[in-house]
Amino acid sequence: xxxxxxxxxxxxxxxxxxxxxxxxxxxxxxxxxxxxxxxxxxxxxxxxxxxxxxxxxxxxxxxxxxxxxxxxxxxxxxxxxxxxxxxxxxxxxxxxxxxxxxxxxxxxxxxxxxxxxxxxxxxxxxxxxxxxxxxxxxxxxxxx
Length: 144
Hints:
Blueprint: H1 7-18, H2 22-31, E1 41-46, E2 49-55, E3 60-65, H3 74-87, E4 91-96, H4 97-102, H5 104-123, E5 133-135
Helix pairs in contact: 2-5
């Protein structure tokens, strides 16, 4: 199943690609040169949304959450979005922006490991891990 966006989300994703935050830029530069041969897309349109990063073969979305994601109605909006992605068979990994900066190597290793495991399971016809949102802290002392 291909994950496609609406006209609105495609336009929004195009704008967001030009306006990436510093943590998103750091993560993008690290993800695009991974040794597992995984291809990641930045600001990928999906339904009404734009995903920070998406690995199609693994059906994995990665979100870098700044401080705004903990305020107002944003947690509820993120939950609705993540629930919709789960119905599409996509697992969401969320990392606080501060962790992307302070533990970039550990965050990247964790993303690559999860993406490779999901890609291999899907390629072998096995169901990957359940499509739920994982708020994953980086492994202690693992990076940077």
